[in-house]
Amino acid sequence: MQAPRFWLRPPERPGLAAWVLTPLSWIYRWLTARRIARAEPLDLGIPVICVGNLTAGGTGKTPTVIALVERLVARSVAVHVVSRGHGGSLTGPVRVDEMRHTAAEVGDEPLLISPFAPVWIARDRAAAGRAARDAGAQVIVMDDGHQNPSLSKDLSIVVVDAATGFGNGRVIPAGPLREPVDVGLARADLVLAIGDAASRAGFAHAWGSRVTVPVLGGELRPLQTGMDWEGQRVLAFAGIGRPEKFFATLDGLGAHIVSRHGFADHAPYDGRILARLEREAQQLGAQLVTTEKDAARLPKEFRPKVLALPVRLGFVDEGVLEAALGRILGDVG
Question: 101-137 pLDDT, tens per residue?
């Protein structure tokens, strides 16, 4: 399902629906807090970097994981990624094989990350961490683990979409938060605000007084592939946290979007949906285009019909990140 619009209302004007649902959010908040408090995190004996968020839905965690992995590989560090494998059927622990596994088995995000580093998926994140360590990992990057207390973490990065911030500041279902901002940030070391300069400035203005840890900026930029998008007629579709971000990127590249379809994050694409999209694209004389993450969920026989637009994360004020990495890596690598 798509996030309700009232989730993105200003915190000072959350709306009637948020007020009505607030008692249910107390239950969600209490369950999350109890699960974290009761846990006994496993210390793997190697650095663990956690990339997570405070809100439901996509904020840019996967590009962040990839960017961190590339940075660590450049340092000659043996880095492995641990993920729950959201949307996948395998319980693990299992190492993702991009040539053998499908998104239906291991999840779309692990499949997308696997060309960059070994990725281990498991419902039990501690078991995946042990498997990664035993396979030679010197550092583990934990994907989407801020509310998962199974592993002891050395660096916790909370990723936020700068344009939407923490929404209306309410906990699910009254708002988009998995836990209150002050509670979640108490366990964080860095906040990574992803967006253009104006969005990052807006986030700082709206939430800066409540962010008690250093803030690092980031921007998602299309990967240069040699494709000329200027004037291209495209039918764009995406099942990510905020499909409009993908559409805006295509607009910025000069593509002529003749039709756009937004689906829920991690939405599966069955034959009926794909047939409808293909038929519409043919009628409009347009090329089907989607995100890398969505492309990972497409049936193999359908992928040649769709162009994927890859994006990569660039960091702003890299000194903040480098200092944090230097603190935890020590003599690793």
Answer: 888 899 889 999 999 999 999 999 999 999 999 999 9
Render pLDDT for 140-198 as a digit per residue (tens, 0 to 9).
999 999 999 999 999 999 999 999 999 999 999 999 999 999 999 999 999 999 999 99
| Contact in structure between 39 and 150 (CB atoms under 8 Å) | yes
Cα separation, 282 vs 258, whole angstroms: 12
> What does residue 20 show for φ and ψ, rounded to 5 degrees?
-65, -35
Q: What is the DSSP string of 173-215?
A: TTSSBSS-HHHHHTT-SEEEEES-HHHHHHHHHHHGGG--S-E
Amino acid letter for position 129: G
- The number of angstroms, rounded, from the C-alpha of 295 to the middle of its chain's C-alpha atoms is 15
Name the amino acid, one letter, at 251.
D
Q: Which residue's entry shows tokens 């956690």?
A: 50
The Cα-based distances of 7 to 19, 175, 255, 310 in angstroms read 11, 5, 30, 28
User: pLDDT (tens digit, 9 = 90+) per residue, 6-47?
Assistant: 998 999 898 899 999 999 999 999 999 999 999 899 999 999
Chosen CATH of 38-221+313-329 out of 3.40.50.300, 3.30.420.40, 1.20.120.80, 3.40.50.1360: 3.40.50.300
pTM of full prediction above 0.85: yes
Query: So where are the chain's domains?
Result: 38-221+313-329, 233-309
Residue 288 burial (CB < 10 Å; 0-12/13-18/19+)? buried
